[in-house]
């Protein structure tokens, strides 16, 4: 992906978000398994939240990003009470498409990593189109 000269976003933007794991975040609670550890859907939501945060300060008026593609390896369990940190880095811009590398860590251990692709859209048009589809 190449950076667009007039794009509001450029590679290198980063953000991090934290989550202290509660019972509501477990695989048992979110329906993705039967173990009392951080569920993969919550890991994914945290990773996406970091990508949203990375673009927030440069978002054009009326704009937003929506998820397009995710590749995520969730490789280690995190018990209730631990704090995980998701870090997202914008690595590529191709027109309205934004590609991020994401990593989620628990202390010094990487518990998940992958890539998230998002697309810049006009918020109002997107919501209107979504409503027309129903």
UniProtKB/TrEMBL annotation:
<feature type="active site">
    <location>
        <position position="48"/>
    </location>
</feature>
<feature type="active site">
    <location>
        <position position="74"/>
    </location>
</feature>
<feature type="domain" description="Fluoroacetyl-CoA-specific thioesterase-like">
    <location>
        <begin position="21"/>
        <end position="123"/>
    </location>
</feature>
<protein>
    <submittedName>
        <fullName>Hotdog domain-containing protein</fullName>
    </submittedName>
</protein>
<dbReference type="InterPro" id="IPR025540">
    <property type="entry name" value="FlK"/>
</dbReference>
<feature type="active site">
    <location>
        <position position="40"/>
    </location>
</feature>
<dbReference type="InterPro" id="IPR054485">
    <property type="entry name" value="FlK-like_dom"/>
</dbReference>
<dbReference type="Pfam" id="PF22636">
    <property type="entry name" value="FlK"/>
</dbReference>
<feature type="binding site">
    <location>
        <position position="67"/>
    </location>
    <ligand>
        <name>CoA</name>
    </ligand>
</feature>
<dbReference type="InterPro" id="IPR029069">
    <property type="entry name" value="HotDog_dom_sf"/>
</dbReference>
<feature type="binding site">
    <location>
        <position position="67"/>
    </location>
    <ligand>
        <name>substrate</name>
    </ligand>
</feature>
<feature type="binding site">
    <location>
        <position position="118"/>
    </location>
    <ligand>
        <name>substrate</name>
    </ligand>
</feature>
């Amino acid at each position: 992906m190449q950076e667009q000269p007039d794009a509001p976003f450029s590679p290198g933007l980063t953000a991090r978000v934290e989550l202290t794991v509660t019972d509501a975040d477990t695989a048992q609670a979110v329906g993705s398994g039967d173990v009392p550890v951080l569920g993969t859907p919550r890991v994914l939501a945290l990773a996406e939240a970091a990508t949203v945060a990375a673009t927030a300060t440069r978002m054009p008026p009326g704009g937003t990003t929506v998820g397009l593609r995710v590749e995520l390896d969730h490789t280690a369990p995190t018990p209730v009470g631990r704090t995980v940190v998701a870090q997202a880095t914008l690595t590529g811009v191709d027109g309205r498409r934004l590609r991020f590398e994401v990593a989620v860590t628990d202390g010094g251990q990487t518990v998940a990593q992958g890539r998230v692709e998002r697309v810049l859209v006009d918020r109002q048009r997107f919501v209107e189109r979504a409503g027309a589809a129903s």
